[in-house]
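Entry 14. Two folds queued back to back today. First construct below, sequence then structure tokens.
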Amino acid sequence: MATENLSPALRTPASSRPYAKAGRGYGKRSAPDQRPARADDFMLLPERERYIAGYVDHLPDGAAMDIKSLAKSIPLYGQMAVGSALRALGVAGHLRHAQCRVEERGQVRWVTRTFWSRTARDNEWWGAFLNAENDRATQEANAPRTPPRVPTQAPAPRAGAEPHAPAPVTPAEPTAQPTAPGPVPVVPQQRTPEPAPAHPSPAYLALAQLGRIEPRLALSAADCTVLEPLAAQWFTRGVDTDYLTHALASGLPAQVDSPIGFVRRRLTDKIPPHLPTTPTPATPGTPVRRLMVECTECGTPGHPEALPDGLCRPCRTPAPDPASEQVTGANAERDVRGLVAELRGMLKRP
């Protein structure tokens, strides 16, 4: 008879390094209606899951919840153990992974969020909670955004303040009489450097910082000015600075002889395709989901009802045992041999 482990949750040691913070929009999200933290939290879980659950429970919202970040912060377990523990915590009802649709500055991206609950929840509770989160995200996206009001009138003077006296008008000085022009010295024309743009565009800034990211693609100010129109075409197609710099700096050869020529060639050859400015109309009566639950094991997105315990169907179905398949194949082979021997015996009979 198996006995339950009723020991309290292991205390996680204080880490010398600060916790890893996720990017904007990513990371941990605490579920509502949780009970206060107690010493017997997660006592029914195995030792490894209890340790990792105690560490995750103490993380603030917005902390990184990916496997690599947790494995760096928890020295006792590696990435494989952390991934298995997160899967077990999802089955136990403590977490769910979800992809949230975020629209910023005319761009659409999907961010991964991990919803955490200290109190174990069943599939019905997680389904209702994630559907409510989806409705809330849809309402926030469809809410009209009013620009801030800017006062048009000058502020009234404060009570008791003395009015400013007009400045005294000084008489104009008599203008000097023009003198006869003297010989103008001939000075050779000096070459002045091109002034930097007062308000550089995002394309210019992306090209300017390209040399700091990859020294082999260092561009001068004149090179950035020449290549700015080509880079601006990328921004008109919905990409951002990170996408542009990654496309230009990835997969470089060992030596780049001409950075401006190399960057010009990539700006021309790797330009992304045009995307429709208007969203594709959805089927009438089918709402667009802005929150999709993903499988804790493989990351396959889907509806909460299709991912019970946070797992898709292939991850819930256990893999077949190779030993049983070999036994079944051997039995089938013996049955075939017996059938052939019986048929041969029937043919020999008179």
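Second construct, same run, same settings:
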Amino acid sequence: MDEKTITNPLNQGQENSNDPIKITVLGCGNVGVAIAADLSIGGHDVSLIKTSHSKESVFYKIRQNNNRVLLKENCSYRTAVINEVSHDISKVTKADVVIVTIQSTYHENLIERISKFLNGSQIVICICSYMSSFYFKKHCSSMPVIVETAGPYLEGRIEEDDVPGEVVFRVGCKLTRSPLSIFQKEIAGECMDRIRQLYKGFSNEYSVLESALLNPNMVLHTVGSIMSIPRIEYSKGNFCMYREAYARGNDATFKVMLDLDKEKRKVLERLGCNPIDIFVAGGFLGDPIKSFYEYSESKDRAISPTSVRSRYITEDVSQGLILLESIAKRIGVDVPITTSLINISSVALGEDFRENGRTIQRLGCEKYIEELCETRYGY
């Protein structure tokens, strides 16, 4: 792979591995607040940065409470005090680790904004990023080490009415294992030593392509929400996709989900990647279907999406399915379910998702896909 700069971040990092790590978390939504709180409790020096000026009620409440967030797990509360909460994206300059938690729809714009503050001694971890490694390669003159996960290790929701006056993150699930990819494979071992200081469940199991296409949201969110568009509109904000779209007995929706997953696995297999199914990728262990239904029926599932114009469609179609379709076209794999879901959502929302969606051409990763083809088939 044609890398710009490969630097071992441990050569310029802390001398003592037990020292707190300086972390900047970009994004003040559910994932950003959860990770910032969890890592603060873990003793790290965390800055939480709001990257936009929309939906700021949680951001300002955290600041009014002297940067305090309550992490609620199994009916008990732990108090996190985040070192700094601001809009200042230049804070990434002093960070050892930068964690990007905003929607992948906005990744390229954010990467352009922060590129001048990044350097080769840093690690950047993108949560659910659909191959954003290539946007960093495209825009960064000094390339940090890029890590991509297929999902957050901590799931749940921010609740502002659980404890009066407090911002509470209610943990719905904390994964025991969170697979990831490291763009600079040559220094993956050293990077994992640093990354596991943040969360011991991080595991270097995926390629860059696998970390993108094995994001469970690309399959579960798109099918569950697109098949439920009339119900979402009729409910006027009172819809829970997992409990309703994936209820036991909803065999038609379940079949569409499985067939979309087959298309994803066919693409992965054609490129010599691990064709992991949705149940393994989503962490549904033991009896996978039983585990999936128990997850869907859990009281921890949030009321969401409340609008058809939610990230369940706007992000996971435009960044996930469009990417899958563009890769499939390049390697000659037919993906009719993928194409149909893109077409339906584009018509329903009145937006051509292919026009601005994430393709291998827009990412600039055609050579990467070609190399996978050459390795697999010699062409």
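Quick look at the second one. The longest helix spans residues 311-331. The CA atoms of residues 371 and 378 lie 9 Å apart.
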